[in-house]
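fyi for ur records
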Amino acid sequence: MCPTLRVVIACASFFAYPLLCVGADLRAGELAYDRGDYATALKEWLPIAEQGGPNLHSLPDLYFLIGATYAHEGATQNYTEAARWYRKASEQGHRKAQYWLGVALETGVGIPQDYKEALKWYRNAADQGFADAQYAMGRMYANGSGLRQNYVEAAQWYLQAAAQNHVGSQNALCGMYLLGRGVRQDYSEAASWCKKSANQGDPDAQTILAGFYAIGKGVPQDYVLALMWVLIAEPNGGQKAIDVRKGIESVASQDQISLAQELARKWQPPAANSQPSANSGIASIRSSGDPSIAEGGRQVSPQFEKLRKYLDAEMLDDAIREIQRLAEANEFDPELHFALGEVYFRKGNFEEAIRQFTTSKKLDGHMWQATERLADSNLRVWETGKDQTSRIAACSLYEEIEHFDGSHATISAFSQSNDLAKAKVRASETARRLESPEGLWATENGDQYSLYRKDSTWHLSGPMLLATLEESAGGLLIGHGSNSVRSCVLDLNIVVRLSDCATSMSVEGIFLQIVGAVDKDELRACTYLLGGTTGMKMIEFKTRRLK
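which gave:
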């Protein structure tokens, strides 16, 4: 029986690379899979997976591959079995399996449809940085599938996936900025996201971008660029691209048409997208081209090639062993610490990820991805454990990314994103979200207060306190509120002070007057009961953020 299992699975879909193992059974399964004999592949793999031997280090990878094989078109296709094996891998933290289990639950293929459970698995995979799952979360929020429709949340998830060059998320953001859903309406921002997707070869984005250039929306009007993009899109863009092309040609000059045709002929499509569509299905796929070039055009040193493949395949235990081997020659290589941080991040061990990304950042201060992932790790610690220090650290690190000088930046071969401009957009959005005081707060004795914003006014509510507040200088919220003491209702001047990154909030209430007293006797009784005069501080408490 095989002592070590190494399953290499391609990014973001059912695509599967060859299974590399010294064991005869696993090797036989690999060969059968490569020739399309999925029945034999399952015959070889199932006994190994069902036995679950203690010497198999990457069993979740095999579970996932078996699920993908069952989902493959052919005589062995069985969506029920596919879902069952995806669940086995998902329960052990395999993020691709979690995503595809979410797909099965959302669509009801091979398993009863359940939007809420689909969201659970999508979120698990998305929290591990899996772009397709982040896109799915955005889509579920945008459509209101299994939860209340929320375009703001949808945009946040789309931004995370788009930062990883996810075409679907870039297209979604284009539409959201165009319509002003969940974000401010901004035609130039819409065109920018559309252009990112178009440059990755998406024909729908190319056609839409052609329309932007044709009418000058979000970009300067330019019939040459408009026609160039629609000509590039037309072979795969369907009737819509043809109609747009005919419309532009009807208003463009012959010189403009000729120049656009020349530019379209010279345009080179990008390399195969590293984030295939979630609807791609299952296929056997081999990497091609120069093996020293990683996704996104990043150079990968030959010594790191095997480690890179392990990370791409989610073979995290094998990746750790390879890092340990490489560290024997250079334990101070910032790339190795970054790679180890990425492994722990995907495993959900965010505290250890913080240690490794911190070391990488210290060793190479120009590697902005280390700062970005360090921020992401601190954010996850806050989200899972509500550690205030981690929230403050995340805020500071995202702001650092916003102002990062890219003139001397170095690029990690193991990062899922190599576009600093996109990282700055994501960092800005996340930092603004963290700095907002909106949410639920609690005092030491357990009293809870809600602070939320409606239009330009803030509202604070809690035990016997209601207040309406406005933003003031110095980050203060100031306004009026009412507080009840027995039958006495107090009119108060409320001052709210917030700490850095809105981790704690102090509230003070200054007594203005008694309201609601119906006669002098009642007013006198309330005054005696309160024992206070105008200007006296009647309320003072501190809270910490719950969410």
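The longest helix spans residues 223-249. thats all i got for now
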